[in-house]
Specification:
Largest sheet of chain B: 6 strands, mixed
Helix content of chain B: under 10%
Structural class of chain B: mainly beta
Number of helices of chain A: 0
Oligomer: heterodimer
Number of helices of chain B: 0
Distance between the termini of chain B: 41 Å
Largest interface: A-B, 24 and 21 residues
Number of strands of chain B: 12
Number of strands of chain A: 11
Order of helices and strands of chain A: EEEEEEEEEEE
Radius of gyration of chain A: 14 Å
Amino acid sequence: NAGVTQTPKFQVLKTGQSMTLQCAQDMNHEYMSWYRQDPGMGLRLIHYSVGAGITDQGEVPNGYNVSRSTTEDFPLRLLSAAPSQTSVYFCASSYHGTRGIQSDEQFFGPGTRLTVL
Amino acid sequence: GDSVTQMEGPVTLSEEAFLTINCTYTATGYPSLFWYVQYPGEGLQLLLKATKADDKGSNKGFEATYRKETTSFHLEKGSVQVSDSAVYFCALRGGNKLTFGTGTQLKVEL
């Protein structure tokens, strides 16, 4: 199993450009999520999905779009990049338990370091 | 809303020293509590967890006890190694969302 994979590892954008951060998992996990990691802020949830066709907003969703057309993939789109979106982005996945709540362990990808100039 | 407060870092220790990283939380209901570790250049990995009051999570020599009366989940290790150098995150889960603390960087020197 490759686990959770993310591409690209590094990206530099100019203000106003758009791009998609890719995330894929091969563990058949129902739950997938995107976080951003900023110094002194910990990880903050951007968007999450509990299954194909279902997405919801997290703590900091503005400026980001997501979709979940398959169980495996959960891309994150920046429509018009801003310097405030300079961050490290992590994708994570986990099982969705029988009570409809994500299981205890989330599996994280290696991250994408994004710089917006 | 839910929140997690961790001690600020960096924490610098000599090898074989005792480690404590403090974590307190605010949450409604009965959250599950976690410690995640992030090694340089990598994503986060689950280190240990506790799902109810008085539970003790343990892994790789690290321990943490879920203290409901003090809303705390402090991470401890009796003898740290250079290989333990990493950033440690305390987190809680309420429903479908994980809430993380800001992370504590640990540096262990020979």
